[in-house]
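Homework help board

Subject: predicted structure for assignment chain

Our instructor gave us this sequence and asked us to write out the predicted structure in token form, then describe one feature. I got the tokens but I'm not sure how to describe them. Can anyone check?
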Amino acid sequence: MSSIAPSSTAETGRLSSYKRIVVKIGSALLVENGKLKRAWLDALAEDLSRLARGGAELIVVSSGAIALGRGVLSLPSGALRLEQAQAAASVGQIALARAYAEALGARGIVAGQVLLTLGDTEERRRYLNARETLGTLLKLGAVPIVNENDTVATSEIRYGDNDRLAARVATMASADCLVLLSDVDGLYTAPPAQDPDAVFLPEVAAITAEIEAMAGAAGSELSRGGMRTKIDAAKIATSAGTVMVIASGKELNPLGRIEDGARATWFAARSTPASARHAWIGGHLEPRGTLQVDAGAIRAVVSGKSLLPAGVKAIEGEFSRGDTVRIVDPDGRDIGRGLVAYDHPEALLIMGRNSREIETILGYAGRAEMIHRDDLVLSDHTLGSTKTSDMHKTQDNTQGSEGNA
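My token output:
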């Protein structure tokens, strides 16, 4: 199959068909000569408000802090030293957050600021903390405004571009669509400014060597133009089940323009975010421990519930929060795998106990679930041996003495 294909899905070109959307905004779109482009931001906020009213959950990954801070501090033109860039980011992040809060607040939307570093998306514990923060903000109806924490990041420990950061945020949040707004309207077979015969690609079915070559090799002039990082972002996003689109943000209401069919390049996802995550948990992570659960817990997880501490009767192995563990029945038969929400010592303390007791036992209010249903994958034999009719006949669908999450 060719990696270049016409639209084949109903979703292509319709942002309103997606449930969780990450929008990345380039600095040049938002800031000009050190000043915020308020008319552009207001138009974007209207686009976001329209999508939110349609039921979409939204995350914005926005550049612009250094550019804004540079203007506020009256720093000279040209390359900034590291300490100057960090100082500019410090000032600019305040201005950027205030601008988003005002623009979205005028439309009844709460904005939350989330500053990330490379380690926050690469190290398991920090990844889980960031994921939970984003998830909680979305559940509360807020729009997280994400940026790299340039006040502390150095060249050795930073992304350096928000394209790839946005892709990691999209996978972290299990978003089904990632929009990269930029000064280009999509991918061409060659730089259109240099090659009059360059062909625009409306959709890319798979990222092949041919597609990567169109973006230019690392360090090339085209790469410095930004397309290489966008293709890298597409590889991250689509492999995790997230559709990605590159579109121009130069005009007002850029998201509305995409919805109305403006030129853009869509990158097809290999699967859905949920199925990609389940495949990752089920087949690509080595279990670090085992949780033995009772019959009530088995019925609960098979019916789509989370695994609660009350249903756990024995624990083996040494594991940390976020590690993969096996779930087995009282006879040791495999039930599935999941990402455990507690370190091994804490899991031992709360197993068999009601979730309402967690704060008393541990001294803090932890998660109600030992393994959340979104982080749990049942084995094929468990799914194969479960009959819907049997589940409906089951009267006791509790885990220990506790109901299900």
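Reply (TA_rk): Your tokens look well-formed. For the description, you could write something like this. The longest helix spans residues 82-105. That's the kind of observation they're looking for.
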